[in-house]
Design brief:
Order of helices and strands: EEEHEEEHHEEEEHHHHHHH
Oligomer: single chain
Distance between the termini: 47 Å
Helix content: 25-40%
Shape: globular
Strand content: 15-25%
Number of domains: 2
Mean pLDDT: 80
Number of strands: 10
CATH topology of the largest domain: Transferase(Phosphotransferase), domain 1
């Protein structure tokens, strides 16, 4: 695995973690019944008080913790917080790569200042961990809105019931709206896939899990390689899900918002075809995606044989083009999806 990118090259200046990262990698204090458990100032941005999220988690107000998921990243709980149903995510400390674990925790906050109907809202975050969760060896806690118990992966693969065209179009539109909002604020997700898109009880898709995200410098967003080098943008980081990862990232090239568009193309294919994108050896797939332009199959798939399906096939193939600049932007995608509603 490549050496992790220094945290100061991933985050805006006001979100740099303290050089004394030891205090971020283990609980700072144990919950003892106090109303709040404050984090030392040097562990959080000085401007936190003016932010839309809080750098203080009121642990006494965090009640009814129920585990709802876990993985290599840590664990997620459903809970009640200040009268609101929330999701609580603990970020696990990786013994093999502690810096990568810390970077993942801080990356969760890249969209913390942003509010959009199709992006999961961050409520509070802390480098502290309550004593009830210390056994998880976590380095931090993020309190987020609870968007429901379903994700797009379970919608696609958890039922044999067909997904109506109006429904998958609505899901796709929600995702692209969320991406467009993030990209307009310089945030790239870099791990977009059905499992990281939550579906609310009202059927609204919300982009979640920003542990692989980056905040791009303005000079890098529209400039070429020289602009990226001048702005100090590192090569693309390791991480994310290989089946949805753009070929330029697999080659270690610079990050742009078009990497998320590639991932969206794979996700849209899954929505229509409801199969896994690839089968076989991971390393062979990675090589073929880069060297032989391997993509999920579209020929012979019933989903692409209607008028709307053929329009969607064209769009999907543009999204996963090997040439990043030729992929459509999120605003352009919205226009194409809107036009697709007229096809039958």
């Amino acid at each position: 695995m490549p050496s992790p990118i220094p945290a100061t090259r991933l985050l805006p200046k006001d979100l740099y973690p303290s050089p004394d990262t030891g205090t971020c990698s283990s609980p700072l204090a144990k919950y003892s019944g106090d109303a709040t458990l404050k984090v030392p100032v040097h562990n959080f941005p000085r401007r936190a008080a003016g932010r839309l999220w809080s750098s203080v988690v009121q642990w006494k107000e965090l009640r009814s913790m129920q585990p709802i998921g876990s993985g290599g990243f840590g664990s997620v709980y459903k809970a009640r917080y200040l009268g609101e149903t929330v999701a609580v995510k603990t970020v696990k400390k990786c013994a093999k790569n502690k810096l990568a674990s810390r970077q993942s925790f801080w990356a969760e906050l890249h969209a913390a200042d942003l509010r959009h109907a199709n992006v999961v809202r961050v409520i509070a975050a802390s480098a502290c961990v309550p004593s009830t969760l210390e056994h998880e060896n976590s380095i931090g806690t993020v309190v987020m809105e609870y968007a429901g118990s379903r994700n797009l992966h379970s919608v696609i693969y958890g039922s044999t019931e067909a997904i109506a065209a109006d429904r998958w179009l609505a899901y796709a539109t929600d995702i692209v709206r969320g991406l467009g909002f993030l990209h307009s604020h310089g945030v790239v997700h870099l791990d977009l896939k059905p499992a990281n898109v939550l579906v609310s009880k009202d059927g609204v898709c919300k982009i979640a899990d920003f542990g692989c995200s980056l905040k791009l410098d303005k000079a890098c967003e529209g400039g070429g390689a020289a602009a990226a080098a001048a702005a100090g943008r590192p090569p693309s980081p390791a991480g994310g899900t290989y089946t949805h990862r753009a070929p330029e990232l697999l080659k270690g090239e610079r990050v742009t918002a078009k990497a998320d568009i590639f991932s969206f193309g794979i996700t849209l294919w899954q929505l229509l075809v409801r199969e896994q994108p690839y089968t076989g050896d991971r390393h062979h797939i990675l090589y073929a995606v880069v060297a032989h332009n391997l993509r999920p199959p579209v020929q012979g798939k019933p989903a692409f044989q209607t008028g709307r399906g053929r329009a969607c096939e064209t769009l999907v193939c543009r999204c996963w083009s090997g040439d990043a600049p030729s992929r459509p932007s999120a605003p352009a995608l919205l226009g194409h999806l809107d036009e697709m509603r007229t096809h039958s």
